[in-house]
Amino acid sequence: MSSYLLSLAIWVPIMGALMVFAAGSNKNLARWTALGVALAGFIVTVPLYLGFDMSEAGMQFVEQRAWIPRFNIEYLLGVDGISMLFLLLNSFITIIVVIAGWQVIEDKVAQYLGAFLIMSGLMNGIFSALDAVLFYVFFEASLIPMYIIIGVWGGHNRVYAAFKFFLYTLLGSLLMLIALIYLFLSSGGSFNLLEWHQLRIDMTPQILIFLAFLVAFAVKVPMWPVHTWLPDAHVEAPTGGSVVLAAIMLKLGAYGFLRFSLPIAPDASHYLAPMMIALSLIAVIYIGFVALVQTDMKKLIAYSSISHMGFVTLGFFIFNQIGVEGALVQMISHGFISAAMFLCVGVMYDRMHSRNIADYGGVVNTMPKFAAFFMLFAMANAGLPATSGFVGEFMVILGAIKFNFWVGFAAATTLILGAAYTLWMYKRVIFGEVANSHVAELADINSREFLFLALLAFCVLAMGIYPYPFTEVMHASVDNLLKHVAVSKL
Question: What pTM does this model have?
Fold first, then answer.
């Protein structure tokens, strides 16, 4: 069974989505089926972690079968310490999304839930694919469910936001396809990623390959200046769409850097590292200031996500162990915190049908339980010690200071900016006297909302208080990657 765990992680949600579609207009059947499939999808990923050898740097649970033999394309799957946690995160967030949309979505319920399950399977495929064509197929296919989710269940400008999201990410991927074809020819006709990692490529082609991957992955992260699609997508997406977009989809680009850019073009990665560090610091600092002036809660959290993902790319390109591991921890932590923040905004939006900060005030008086959860997540977003938000940021800042004091100093400004925009939003929305009659009529969270907020609160605190299970699983693989990148391929 263990040799099929990765296939199960991919295909259980996708096949289960077909069962959800079969429920048709029976909303309750669709919801319970989707929940069962989401739980099954998570359960099949748990043995991956429990059976994972943390001392082993290479790929584990490898599956290899011929797919398109004529072009030497294989159905090749495997996970290492870098990709392991993302499968668990993705499958866990899918459960949260199903619970969160239980009573909120009343139109085309089966299609809505089925789209998330398909996307869950496709993203597990991205995190476990070791064949470049298989990766590309999963990478592009994951756009379709999200495009549909934004375009069908989104806000007033949903069609515009869906098109912008789709075109940005698709155009970015075209250059990646050209790079994949070049590497296929350079390797003598192989799409095996592990074989590509051993290629010796001249500096100029390395730089071109790196830049081709950069365009594709930078849009997904998103890095400054190709970030403008994200606030629009977040504002128009339904709450579940925003949760998956922030918690999982933004991680695909960052993951691509570690799986493609650094190991395939190590010399170009070092050569272009100053540019990557500069772009990352612009995202951390400039986008932090942009978040400060937002009047829409979703837009503020969207810009916050861009700023926090700038920390991730910074950690990758300072090329030390604590920086890269800190960036990976930040990715997992951001998955929990951003999901929680968007869900909190969704809870209020379901009651007031407004995301404008000015429409709220004094929510703590009518929703004390909700205010307590929101406070925890706001503090985690600001990097409070003993929350998951602190662990990754602290590790990246520590790694950045080892690399260069002023880079670390600039990165540390996020601790001030993050606290400023997050707590300012919290103060205006939650504290003070009841601002209007609409706030006075608000009802506190119900048991369903308490469940998904409590699950995320547990994850945020557990990771913040005891990060060892998260950091130890990636240690050997990160060490191996850095040794590989440190050796010139020229």
Answer: 0.87
